[in-house]
Amino acid sequence: MSEKNSRSARKVRVGTVISAKMDKTAVIRVDRTMKHPLYKKTVRTSSKLYAHDENNEANTGDVVRVMETKPRSKTKRWRLVEVVEKAK
């Protein structure tokens, strides 16, 4: 399998930075909507991802794109691809 095919198979998520206080790490909240399995109501859920931010470019409130990667530490499984929108 070529490098290009394996990279395109990785998961990509867009979320909001909720903490950038750690060195080279950002905590991102990814929101998604889903239907409740029993009641069929649309529910909003969120998950926290720990992403590797090599240059510390993400700040709290920024909208960022992250990509799945090999484990960097105990909790980090994602890496920052780009800052989509800076916080106001």
What features would you highlight for this structure?
single chain; 88 residues; mainly beta; OB fold (Dihydrolipoamide Acetyltransferase, E2P); five-stranded mixed β-barrel; 1 helix; 5 strands; 50% strand; globular
Characterize the structure shown.
- The chain is mainly beta and 88 residues long.
- It has a single domain (3-85), classed as OB fold (Dihydrolipoamide Acetyltransferase, E2P), CATH 2.40.50.
- The protein contains 1 helix and 5 strands; from the N terminus they run αβββββ.
- The protein has one helix spanning 3-8; strands at 12-19, 25-35, 42-52, 63-68, 78-85.
- The chain is globular and about 45 Å long.
- It starts with a helix and ends with a strand.
- The relative contact order is 0.26.
